[in-house]
Amino acid sequence: MTLYALPGACSLASHIALEWVVAAEPAIEDQVRVVMMPRDTFPTPQFRAKVAVPTVPALETSDGAIITESLAVLLHITDRFPKAELGPRQGHYRDELHRLLSFMASTAHPSFQMLWRPERFSDDPVAHASIKRQAVTRLTRVFSHLDSALGDGEWLLGSKPSVADFYLFVLGRWGQRLDDATHNYPNCWRVTEALSRSAIVHRVLAREGITFCGPVAGLG
To answer: What CATH code is carried by the domain that includes residue 7?
Structure first.
């Protein structure tokens, strides 16, 4: 199994998930590989030839299938390695896992793109300021919703971290650079900071060549 990732991108959540799996099942370490791709040459012709829609995360399974999109990759890892206990497998909490991942992938992540990559939403430079203003409003709603979803809970889905928390960590890490920063949302910040102290997350950040705080702006 090979994960293709970019430093500090949303693929960071999948990278953390795989490292969590290896920590739970050390015997499979040789079966898991992470390929970090430089941002300045992405996507390479070789990657385009392998992945029809050249985006990260991209997961190549042991049988050669390619899975893209964070929601699909994170759910695949969860189900493929049940011993790691990265998410519920049935019932209400499974539905909630789907909902949270969908919300983060389809609402939260694009809001950051609107703020830092407005040219992806309009080729008219005049519109970029308006897109950024909308992004700020959306991100306030995003973090307010996730803060409420957490409440007093230790993690989003019970007493153990799940792939939903790993995705929240990515958003929380990016959110430190907002004027209305992640630490203004105490529940989101609690989870983000807790994962930042994990030895597993430390290893992943080091492998990606990034820090918890990250750059001043951008998705890296």
So the answer is: 3.40.30.10
